[in-house]
Design a protein that fits this description.
This protein is an alpha+beta fold. The chain has helices at about 5-15, 90-110, 115-125, 135-150, 160-170, 180-195, 200-210, 215-230; strands at about 20-35, 40-55, 55-70, 75-80. The N and C termini lie far apart (about 85 Å).
C-alpha cells in the first residue's frame, strides 16, 4: 500500500521549486572589529537585490536588501552598526589619548612643582601605551598648555581644558565598561593625591573627567572619596 502524501509533503516540494536568492554588490570596504572572529578584519560593505527563483533560476525581482557588512575572513554578514565599534588598534589609540589627556588635566590643575604627581602621571601614561613618556615631557606639555590657553596652573578647569577632555573622552566612553571608566577616573585621582589632598582645582578637573566619562555625579563623589582611603 502506497503512503498517502499530505499537505506537508506538497509544501516541501513547492519550496524546492520556488525560492529566493540575493545578488550582492560591493559598495565599499575597510577594516572593522569582527565580533565573530574576535579581532580586526577586512570587510566589504554590500547591497543586495533579491530575486524569486524557479528551480534555482532567478526569474522575478523581489526588491533590495542590505546594506550589510561581510567579514573577509569568516564570511559572516552583520548590520552596518557593527562599524560603530572601533578596531582594536583604534581603541588602543583612543585609550592612550584618554589616559594622556586626563593626566595632563590633573597636572595642570595641581601644578608641576611637586615631583610625586609627575612620577604618578608618567607611570599611568606609560602603562596606557606611551612607553617613552618622561616626567620632563609631561611638565613641558603642561607649561605649553598653560601658555597656549593663557591659563594659570592650579586654577579650576577652564573652557579650553574642558573641551580637550571631552574631545578625548567622549568617543572613548561608550566603548568602556563601567569598571574601565571608573579606573580611568581613579588614575587621575591618584595623580592628584600623590602630593596630598585634592585642591579645589584638582577636584574640579576630576569632576569634569567624570562627566566626560558619563559617570553619574554620585559615583564620581564616591570614587574620589574611595581613592583617598589607603587600601
Amino acid at each position: 500500500m502506497l503512503p498517502v502524501r499530505g499537505r506537508d509533503d506538497r509544501a516541501t516540494r513547492a519550496l524546492c521549486v520556488l525560492g529566493t536568492c540575493t545578488a550582492w554588490t560591493p559598495v565599499g570596504d575597510g577594516e572593522f572589529y569582527c565580533p565573530g572572529c574576535g579581532g580586526d578584519r577586512n570587510y566589504q560593505r554590500l547591497t543586495g537585490r533579491r530575486r524569486l527563483t524557479l528551480l534555482g533560476v532567478p526569474v522575478l525581482p523581489r526588491g533590495t536588501t542590505g546594506p550589510v557588512v561581510e567579514c573577509a575572513a569568516c564570511g559572516h554578514h552583520y548590520g552596518t552598526d557593527v562599524l560603530d565599534h572601533p578596531t582594536t588598534r583604534r581603541f588602543s589609540a583612543m585609550l592612550r589619548d584618554g589616559v594622556h589627556t586626563v593626566a595632563l588635566a590633573v597636572l595642570a590643575a595641581g601644578g608641576t612643582g611637586s615631583r610625586a604627581p609627575l612620577e604618578t602621571a608618567c607611570a599611568a601614561v606609560r602603562a596606557g601605551g606611551v612607553e617613552d613618556c618622561t616626567e620632563e615631557q609631561l611638565a613641558a606639555l603642561v607649561d605649553a598648555l598653560a601658555a597656549d590657553t593663557g591659563r594659570v596652573l592650579g586654577e579650576p578647569c577652564g573652557a579650553s581644558l574642558t573641551i580637550e577632555l571631552h574631545e578625548a573622552l567622549d568617543p572613548l566612553a561608550p566603548h568602556l565598561a563601567p569598571a574601565g571608566r571608573e579606573a580611568l577616573l581613579l588614575q587621575g585621582a591618584h595623580i592628584a593625591l600623590a602630593d596630598g589632598p585634592y585642591t579645589p582645582a584638582e577636584r574640579d578637573a576630576l569632576t569634569t573627567v567624570g562627566a566626560a566619562l558619563t559617570l553619574p555625579a554620585e559615583d564620581v563623589t564616591r570614587l574620589l572619596a574611595a581613592a583617598r582611603t589607603p587600601s
